[in-house]
Each structure stands twice: as structure tokens, then as C-alpha cells.
Amino acid sequence: MVVVVPLDCFSFYHCLRNHTTHLPLYSRSSTTTSTLCFRPPIIQAKLPFFTNSDSFQVGRPIGTYGFINVTSYSSFSSGPGTDYSIEDLGGLKTQDVGEGNVKIRLYEGRVSRGPLNGTPVTFKVYPGRRAGGVVADALAANELTTHLFLQSSSKGIAQHLVLLVGGFETATGEQWLAFRDDGKYSVADYAKIVSERLSKNREVSSWNPFEQGLTIKRRQNFIIKLLQGVMKGLAYLHDHDRLHQSLGPFSVVLNTISEKEGSNLIPRLRDLAFSVNVRYTELDASGQLAEGLWRRASAAGAFTQMEKRAFGIADDIYEAGLLFAYLAFVPFCEAGVMDSLSLQRLLENTFRLDLEATREYCLADDRLVNAVEFLDLGDGAGWELLQAMLNAEFRKRPTAEAVLNHRFMTGAVL
Q1: Rounded to two decimals, what is the model's pTM?
Q2: Per-residue confidence of the chain (414 residues) as pLDDT tens digits?
Q3: In whole angstroms, what is the distance from residue 363 CA to residue 317 CA?
Q4: What DSSP state is assigned to residue 347?
């Protein structure tokens, strides 16, 4: 993805402080709901939204991440990532891979005034135009406008999307977005922790078969509920004519990673900086952040507005399918046996998205037996759904709602 965006038509500052009569913002003494105007129609934030840095207290730094740009291989999706370096991508011989210039910092914090006083938040800090150029500014603006649009929905706030509670720009030009803290762990964190735990347990010869079976059963239930939450969040986005476009293990946050507390699990989608508006009236004005998507759409034979919109939705489903595959394998394998890039190469390069052939290969590897058994549930229902989501023909992929209604996702196979 190569992104060039004119600052004057799509900037964080313009989105946050557009000078119109429709933009009363929070003052230091005011905490009434603000009306934010980015483009017609006016977006009305339904929850308190803070645009002054004095409304927050910043805590300790909790991490950084960036973006990987892939410019020559349509099956590989650009998006946030922190589990591999550029050197780790050396095996992708057919791809032109580069490291994005936008470096994002994360901080703990809390709201310090108003009706949300004391609410824990996670700050996502973009470097701003001075340090990150127009790309950083455009990504921050896109994430801001997308969340405010979704949070203004007449259908209510989505349970499976993170909640934006404020945003502001500092004197140095950094752009801070404040999200309610609904969990510290991502799907990638969860998978890493449980695979490492599996390795340790198997080193203990006294780990009894009953306990092992109970652990696997809990994991199966936990992951299906996790996938249900992901697809509900994606269905909400698509129902509101928005694509995610960077869905992966790091773009889903979990309120718990304890499989014993699976009944309380609420996955939430985050990282909407690459989100694309696919409303028919907006397709031609979707901006240069979506240029890579539309190039791939044209290459796949999608030229009309209806076909382009369908391709975009199917592209999200494909990313969700890769996330499904990741969750079907990595948490069920010992640490180091499988990772996201190795799995993607196996599916796309080695077996050309032939899931039946992939299954035969995995059956021959004892280290993958638990993953195969998971996808075998319901007479192969998991493989069936995964094959549909990763169908090479975008027109044959299911919608998010259809995925949710599949017998594997409903839990009927358990």
C-alpha cells in the first residue's frame, strides 16, 4: 500500500476543529455533548467526547507499533503488526515489502473530568504531520472520523468495537486518540500466551489426559466465542457501509484471556485507520487511502460501483478468514510451531487456498493434531467455513452475517 493524501482535504486538525457553526467543542469548564462536522451530514456524537488535553491524565507507556506495507502481492493485507520485523519477511520472495513510516505509541491514562471522570483509557498517539507526514495525518483523521460516524449511529453503540472518548492535537503536532480501556490484551497476545503454556504443560509428564481434554474443550469454546465477537463487529461495520481493511491478530482487543472466564469474553475491533467508506454515493470520493483496494478490485474484475463495494466487503471477509485460520492453529500448537506468516504462506503459496489439501498435510504432522481436530468438529464444519471465507473468487465468499449463521460459528458443533 502506497499512500499519498493531500493534507488540506483530509487532515486530523480539519476533522477535529473544522471551523463551522456546527462545531461547539468542549471548553475547560464544559462537558456537554459536542457536534462534530466533517462533511455533510453533520455527525452528532452521542456520548461525551473530549477535545481538550486537560480532560485527561496520561500514564505510563505500554507499547509501540507500526505498519507493514506490501505493494506487489494482492493476497497479503497491509495492517498494524508488532510480532515480526522486516527481516522476518525474508521468506516472502514474491513480495515487495517495506516498513511504513508511521510509528504509533500507546499509553495508559484516564479521563480526569466530566461525566466520564475516572474512566481508564488507552491513548493511541500518531506522530502528526511534522514527524509522520501527510500519511500519519490522514490515518489519524480517518480513524477519528470513522469512530465518530459509527458512534453516531441510530442503531446504537456497537458492543464489539472499541469506544473513542476523545481526541486532541498537541502543540508539537502529535495527534492523540483516547479509547476506553476495555482490555490490555490482543488476540496475538492471547495466542502467544496459551501456546507457551501448552509447551510448558507438555514438558510436565504428569499432565493428566482428563485435564488436557478439559483445557482443549475450554479453548474451543473460547475461540468460537472470540470469532463470533469479531464477526459481529465486522457485520456492524459492513451494515454501516464501512470496511475494516486491517483486520488481524493485533486489531482485536480482549477484555479477558482466561479461558475459564470465556462466558464473559467480549472481543472488540480496533485500528480503523485504514477503514474505507463503501456507501455507493461515496465510492468515487473514498480518497487515496483506498487506492490499493480499488486497484485490487479492478484486477479481480470489479469495475462497477456495485462490484467494487462487493469486492471490498469480500476483502474484509478474506482477512477475517486468515484470522480464523490463525486462531484455529496457533493457540492449539506449542510455541514456535506455527505463526501468522508461516500459516499464510502455507495456505496461499503452498496449497493455493485448497483447504482439503491443507488438511491432508496437517494430518501428517502430530504437532498440528489439536488444530485439525478443532476444524474437524461437526464433520469438518470448520474447514468448510474456512474454505468459504478464503475462496479465491471474491463473489463466492459469504457475508459477515452468513458467517455468523454457519453451524461452526453458532456453536452447534460443540
Answers
A1: 0.83
A2: 333 333 333 456 555 554 322 322 333 333 333 333 333 333 444 567 888 899 999 999 998 877 655 444 444 443 444 443 333 333 333 333 344 568 899 999 999 998 999 999 999 999 988 777 888 889 999 999 999 999 999 888 899 999 999 999 998 899 999 999 999 999 999 999 999 999 988 777 666 777 888 999 999 999 999 999 999 999 999 999 999 999 999 999 999 999 999 999 999 999 999 999 999 988 887 777 899 999 999 999 999 999 999 999 999 999 999 999 999 999 999 999 999 999 999 999 999 999 999 999 999 999 999 999 999 999 999 999 999 999 999 999 999 999 999 999 998 887
A3: 26
A4: I
Taking the C-alpha atoms of 124, 130, 134 and 136 in order, what is their torsion angle to the nearest 10 degrees? Answer: -20
Nearest Cα to Cα of residue 94 among 76, 68, 67, 78: 76
Beta-bridge partner residues of 36? 43
What is the DSSP track for 149-196? Answer: HHHT-TT---TTB--EEEEEE-TTS-EEEEEE---SEEHHHHHHHHHH
User: Of all helices (H) and strands (E), which one includes residue 372?
Assistant: helix 369-389
- Positive or negative, the CA dihedral 234, 248, 159, 108 is negative
